[in-house]
Each structure stands twice: as C-alpha cells, then as structure tokens.
C-alpha cells in the first residue's frame, strides 16, 4: 500500500507564519509537522509516500529530499496552483498505483495507529476516520451508523483528514481543481463509504493558536 500526504494548502489562517514557509514545514515539538506523518507512516510499514505541494513547494522538496533520512521513498506531485483535495489526489493517481491507498491531511496531528488502515479490507470506495467534534467545528461532518458513513443523521462526527481510498472513487473525474467532499457524498449515497470513530488525540493545526496548543501538548 502507498500513502499520500496532502501538503498543497496555502495556510491562509496561519499567516503571517506561512508567508515565507509552507504550512507542512512549520515546526512543533522540535520537528516539522509533515515529519510526524512521514515517520508514523514508515513505522506502519508505508514507505512509498507521495506528497503534493503548491505554495512554496520547492521548500518541501529541499527539506525532505528523497526520504532516505526517514527510511521512506518520497515522490512529489507539484501543482503550481493548488488543485484542492480531490484534484490533488486525482493528479497524483499515477504515483499511487491501482490498489487502495492511504491519504492524510498535512495539517492535522493525530496518534491514530496507521497500521490498522494498512490491514483494513476495503469493501467500498473509501474508509474514513472520524473524531469527536472540536470546539471550532461543533456541528461535525458526517454520521456513522453500523460502520457506514452518511451525510445525514445524528450524532455527527468530524472527518479527521485520514482515509483509505480506492482509485475508482475518482474514475469519472477530470484534471483540474475540485473538492473531495462531493465524491465522498456520492459514494456514501451508494453505501460505499465505511468508517470508524477514533477517540484518541487529534488536532486540526490550522491556526497559530492550535499550533501553540499542540506545542504545549507535546511538551
């Protein structure tokens, strides 16, 4: 199985920190955000990792290199102008292969055991990790009933930004910028999206305040 780290976002809410450095390279606990993901993926046995980038993306390649330092094989999918989550994954499909692959947002921090996804038998088009709703997103995203995810219903949980996807989820897509959510919702309506509720540590590191909160937690 291969993995992809989504690292192409501009990081508007992190400005001015992200005016001169891409968000995935912001340091917390003594290392870059994206390094936590790389190391945890390698520990889970996922060494072939694709990273997309746009804003100041050359800094990501210069910092991480080919991944040898981490025991990983890093490949890059440069976008120039960010293609949003769906478009970014679609562009990277040639690097991800024909088997299901793991995707993780570059701007979250989570201690979910990624090796569980490596051994998950995907029966539909996607399997999503949901978490408790944070204070800044109290209404959540999706409903989880009997391990199946729906757009409607209660209680609602928040999508963690960690998921397992089958390439067929993108089979009708065309190159360009587009979000992932409509594809997932369509698959949910067909009963093809499973999920699980993880109740461990998870932080959406989207603002300087949350970055500082993570810094304090790691200490």
Automatic annotation (TrEMBL):
<dbReference type="InterPro" id="IPR029044">
    <property type="entry name" value="Nucleotide-diphossugar_trans"/>
</dbReference>
<dbReference type="GO" id="GO:0016779">
    <property type="term" value="F:nucleotidyltransferase activity"/>
</dbReference>
<feature type="domain" description="Nucleotidyl transferase">
    <location>
        <begin position="3"/>
        <end position="120"/>
    </location>
</feature>
<dbReference type="InterPro" id="IPR054790">
    <property type="entry name" value="MurU"/>
</dbReference>
<keyword id="KW-0808">Transferase</keyword>
<keyword id="KW-0548">Nucleotidyltransferase</keyword>
<dbReference type="InterPro" id="IPR050065">
    <property type="entry name" value="GlmU-like"/>
</dbReference>
<dbReference type="Pfam" id="PF00483">
    <property type="entry name" value="NTP_transferase"/>
</dbReference>
<protein>
    <submittedName>
        <fullName>Mannose-1-phosphate guanylyltransferase</fullName>
    </submittedName>
</protein>
<dbReference type="InterPro" id="IPR005835">
    <property type="entry name" value="NTP_transferase_dom"/>
</dbReference>
């Amino acid at each position: 199985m291969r993995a992809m780290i989504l690292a192409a976002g501009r990081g508007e809410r992190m400005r001015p920190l992200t005016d001169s450095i891409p968000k995935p390279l912001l340091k917390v606990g003594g290392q870059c955000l994206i390094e936590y993901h790389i190391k945890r993926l390698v520990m889970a046995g996922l060494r072939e990792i694709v990273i997309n980038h746009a804003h100041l993306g050359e800094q990501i390649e210069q910092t991480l290199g080919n991944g040898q330092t981490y025991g990983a094989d890093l490949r890059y999918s440069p976008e120039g102008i960010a293609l949003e989550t769906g478009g970014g994954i679609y562009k990277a499909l040639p690097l991800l292969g024909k088997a299901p692959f793991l995707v993780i947002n570059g701007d979250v921090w989570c201690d979910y055991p990624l090796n569980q996804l490596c051994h998950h038998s995907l029966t539909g088009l996607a399997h999503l990790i949901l978490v408790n709703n944070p204070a800044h997103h109290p209404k959540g995203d999706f409903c989880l009933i009997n391990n199946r995810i729906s757009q409607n219903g209660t209680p609602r949980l928040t999508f963690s930004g960690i998921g397992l996807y089958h390439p067929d989820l993108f089979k009708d897509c065309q190159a360009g910028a587009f979000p992932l959510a409509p594809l997932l919702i369509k698959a949910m309506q067909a009963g093809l999206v499973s999920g699980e509720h993880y109740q461990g540590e998870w932080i959406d590191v989207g603002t300087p305040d949350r970055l500082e909160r993570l810094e304090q937690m790691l200490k």
